[in-house]
Amino acid sequence: MKKLILFFISCLFFFSLAANTSTITLWHSYRGLEEAALQEIAENFNNSQTDYKVELLSVPYDAFANKLTSAIPRGNGPDMFIFAHERIGDWARSGIIDPLDPESVKLMKDRVVNTTLNAVQYKNKYWGFPLSFKSLVLFYRTDMLPSPPAMTKDLIVTAKRYTDKSRGRYGLAFQATDVYFSAPFLFGFKGGFCLNTPTANDTTPACIDNPGNIKAVQYISDLVNKYKIVPEEATSALVTQLFNEGKVPMVINGPWFMGEISKNVPYNIALLPTVSETGEVLKPFLTVESLIIANHEKTNIKGVKAFANYITDAQAGKIRALKGRQAVATKEVYKDEEVSADKFLNVFRQQAEISVPMSNLPGMRMVWEPMATAMRKVIRGADTSDHALSAAMNQYKIFSQTPPEGQDPLIYILIMIVAALAGIIYIVRQIRKYSVFKSMKTMPAPYLYVLPAMFAMILLVFIPFAVGTCVAFTAHRAGNYSFVGFSNFISILFAQDFPVTNPLSFYFTLAVTVLWTAVNVFLHVTIGLFFALLLREPWLKLKGIYRVLLIIPWAVPNYITALIWKGMFNRQFGAINGLLIWLGLEPVSWFSSFWTSFAANVTTNTWLGFPFMMITALGALQAIPRELEDAAAVDGANMFQRFWNITLPLLKPALLPAVILGSVWTFNMFNIIYLVSGGEPDGGTEILISEAYKWAFQRQERYGYAAAYATLIFIVLLVYSKTTEKLGKGK
Amino acid sequence: MAGVKFENLIKQYNENAVILKGINLDIKNGEFMVLVGPSGCGKSTLLRTLAGLETVTSGKVMIGDKVVNNLPPKDRNIAMVFQSYALYPHMTVEENMAFGLKVRKMPESEIREKVNAAAEMLDIKHLLKRLPKEMSGGQRQRVAMGRAIVRNPEVFLFDEPLSNLDASLRTQMRVELKKLHEKLGTTIMYVTHDQVEAMTLADRIVILNKGIIQQVGTPAELFDTPTNIFVAGFIGSPSMNLIRMKTIKRDNYHTLVSEGINIGVIFGEGAYHEELIAGIRPQDFMLTDDNPEISGSVEIVETLGRRSLVHVRLSETGKITVELDSAVARNFKTGSQIQLNVKHEKMHFFDAKTEMRIKEEIK
Q: For residue A59, how many other CB atoms are within 10 A of its CB?
């Protein structure tokens, strides 16, 4: 005991000593080499002085932005963090981050590559210390191609030599339908999004259907369809695979690609070529990772500045460049012998000079989806470049609409209070009617048993539900919610933004969702029943094995299954088209038309869904005596009549709840839609829940609008299950 | 209407499970044939092969003069009543009875007519709108029969139809079944394990054991001349006493000897057996005071009413059951000595090895 007390005292003593150096926390999402380099720098910094101690916290990339926006306004979170510059506009507007003071700005102007500092500029202020930058370059296999082409004409000629579609070989690979990877062509044809001009501000609308973009998108489509040198439906994994297997000599990709190339593949990188038609260089987007100051009371500005000064100097820059394999923003670093000898770092540096910093204005975030939709349409030949892009422009205009006017919530609050009072009165009456309090006193045990579950339900279901419903009455803009009454619902239900036939309208999506649910549940029940009936047959041997095999699809996590099926439906490399070709049939471009894409989704979900129905039916069948079917057989009923008149009606009481449950699950089966078709083509196969997700997280964070979707989904499902239940009882 | 014929019928699931081992049976048109035997003897399987619910491994099943081996049940024109009645739980009585006609696409009006007629015959007209779960066991039983009757089949199959009823109801239904058969005159194949049902209902009885027919005959034939000890032991209640005995030669007669038993007999021509099994029904004993053929000690007395069963121990292993008037049996207590004679003309004799009836005369 004495030892323990002594231990605590010594601990206290230690902490009081340590208190003289103040700790500053840094959030980052680096992994691997980049993380190691950062750790080394932080350690060196901590050892070099005694005033500050930097503590690193690695936060997963996916959760990074959300954590920041929820922690910092509440006075928590880090003193500083490292993140790409695109979100600076949003964060600066919502006051989450602090700009650099003039002294720091001066320092950075001296130290870093000019383009990188431009990237962190917003409203004439600078919002981060540029650390490193990332942009696309041209990767080429030196064993296949001695030197890379400098002009696109040469690129096409060279690429054609390597292309042999029947053997899965291509001349050039990049994710052609991804806006980020196609951006160099947009700029190379003098297009772009009009957000990089010095006068652009928060309200500047992006331009999408400009002549440059139209030409560029047509050009990319030609690369795929006319010259056929670029694979269709190329995913990041496919690009890597082709390059590693020597099936493509050239790839447009970023620095992260270096980590994905196999060790034995000889390669080099080069600047992107020049467009022969315009004489312009292909300019990729530039993303600048910078050290950003979190804006809350506890932020230790002095400490942050000290660390920023340290990490951006040549010495730390060298560590980041050589050990972290980063293209660092600090100019001085490139004068170092070791660094300048590194061909990769130099190419990245040069490419950074001829790149376009990705705009940090809010307009940029809403460009991606309409632009990507348009590009996919053109590349699969469903639309012309100019028409698709003007449609994209219209879509953009709707996405970037200003939120509805705020309203006075007073009357709503009054209604709420009345409703709450009515609810309370109802509950109290029910409690009295069943004399709950009395039975609580006489028999407290059952109530205590239910208590934890009730608590969990309130915490996990009812409160989030109530909050979600409240959010549906608001509009969200840059961290601020304003009360808008029923505006969201009105705009959704009266199809104010889109005609009913547009895939983005609520009714179109609802129709797709209903169709999706009906087809799925029908297939789940029929296939599940079929197998259940088969597994019951006495002549079938090895039933145990089949039963396990048939349950496996259910046991595998559904996102894994979804990804496997997504791969199998790939246009060029998927197993299903492989099978079709083997059978002598034409391969199908599954995600290019509504019905094939819908079929792909349904196939995946049916694969996932039938085991549940099978298990339910198997269980229910056990309870039906075989004698009933024998009796029916003797009575003269054939197999079909026996099933229809005897087995099915007797299964109904067990199947009905399963069907309701299955419908609700399918109605909200986000994973499959998101992962398999991703809404392709053009958002047509989107269901309500995935559409709501897009409104919330991919289109200007319209949380209120998305919550209104969620509320409508709830109402639809409530009505559905109540009606089905009644119908089931009626018969 | 038609007769039923089985020829060399074999049914086996695998090498080790041969259920029916060559059944030959001829059921005449209009006959009430009862199939009886212990559990697992194959009687239900035989019925189900006739119904078409089980396939046949080899041999022939014929209804009338048509081989039906490969016909599905629906094309055999038979009706079956199950032990559990197998009423469709989601249908009313009316719908249950009409089902077989509906799937045969009979016109609606005709169906109603037939259902009403059958309901009237069985006195279940007031139940037509009820669901099976709303009726008693006896009522369900009637509905099950009604469902069979409306079809007007060539053959009725009954699979232990009365075994789920209580004793008094069973007696009542037995009578009704008999009447029904007389009224309809349809061929009936009836499976039961209850020999009282078999004896009272049957025109002829088939006794089945381990997949082999033991004997076919009228109830009286089976009772009076069982062909082997299985039939002897199976028919008659309480069961016949079967006693293994040795023959000892006397001057002009023989004595059959077992512990506590000593019966003098005269073998007819060719009837001599050194060892045999004697079968004596419990009713065929008489009490005697002197020179008893059998003597033993009373183990227990069971009173049945007018008659009583006296269990008599003859030796360590030897035991017989004797049926006496209760008035007489009352005099015996556990442990008291009892002396008996046998009605010689009622005795049955079986070969000790083959266990088959010795046909030659033994007096």
A: 17
Residue pair A295/A97 in contact by the 8 Å Cβ criterion = yes
Tell me the C-alpha distance between B361 and B363, whole Å. Answer: 6
Maximum Cα–Cα distance for chain B, whole Å? 83
What integer pLDDT is reported at residue A338 of this predicted model? 85
Question: CB–CB of B45/B218 below 8 Å?
Answer: no
Quick: pLDDT tens for B20-72: 888 999 999 999 999 998 888 888 899 999 999 988 999 999 998 889 988 99
Q: Is A268 helix (H, G, I), strand (E, B) or coil?
A: strand
Q: Rounded to an integer, what distance in angstroms lies between the CA atom of residue A81 and that of residue A69?
A: 12
How many Å apart are CA A638 and CA B75, to the nearest integer? 10
A613-638 core/surface letters (b: 16 or more CB in 10 A; e: else): bbbbbbebbeebeebbbbbbbbbbbe
CB-CB contact of B265 with B253 (8 Å): yes
Helix (H) / strand (E) containing B349: strand B348-351
| Complex ipTM | 0.84
Contacting residues for A3 by C-beta, under 8 A, at least 6 apart:
none
Q: Element (H or E) spanning A321, and its range?
A: helix A314-322
Nearest to B80 among A631, A641, A650 (CB): A631
Residue B228 DSSP symbol: B
Q: Report the b/e string of A385-405 with b at 16+ CB within 10 A.
A: bbebbebbbebbeebbeebbe
Cα–Cα distance between A291 and A631 in angstroms, integer? Answer: 80
Cα(A722)–Cα(A724) distance, rounded to whole angstroms?
A: 6
Q: Does B79 lie at the interface with A, CB-CB under 8 angstroms?
A: yes
pLDDT digits (tens, 9 = 90+) for B272-316: 888 899 999 999 999 988 888 898 999 999 998 899 999 999 888
**Cα A340 to Cα A338: distance, rounded to the nearest angstrom:** 6
Q: Which of B53, B105, B145, B191 to mutate to test the interface with A (most CBs of A within 10 A)?
A: B53
Give how far B82 is from chain A: nearest CA, Å: 8
Q: What is the mean pLDDT of chain A?
A: 86
Count Cβ neighbours within 10 Å for each residue of B262-294 and write b for 16 or more, e otherwise: bbebebeeebebeebbbbbbbebbebeeeebbb
Whole-structure pTM value: 0.72
Minimum CA–CA partner of A637 in chain B: B103
Nearest by CB: A630 against B53, B72, B147: B53
- Token pair, residue A112, equals 């870093």
- Per-residue tokens: A4: 């323990």
Say which residues have a Cβ less than 8 Å from residue A499's Cβ, sequence separation at least 6.
A505
Closest CA to A690 of A666, A711, A671: A671
Instruction: Render pLDDT for A431-487 as a digit per residue (tens, 0 to 9).
Output: 888 888 888 888 888 888 999 999 999 999 999 998 888 888 888 776 677 888 888
Cα A347 from Cα A731, distance rounded (Å)? 75
What's the pLDDT tens digit per position in B144-158?
A: 999 998 988 999 999
Q: Does A444 touch chain B (CB under 8 A)?
A: no
Nearest to B73 among A633, A649, A650 (CB): A633
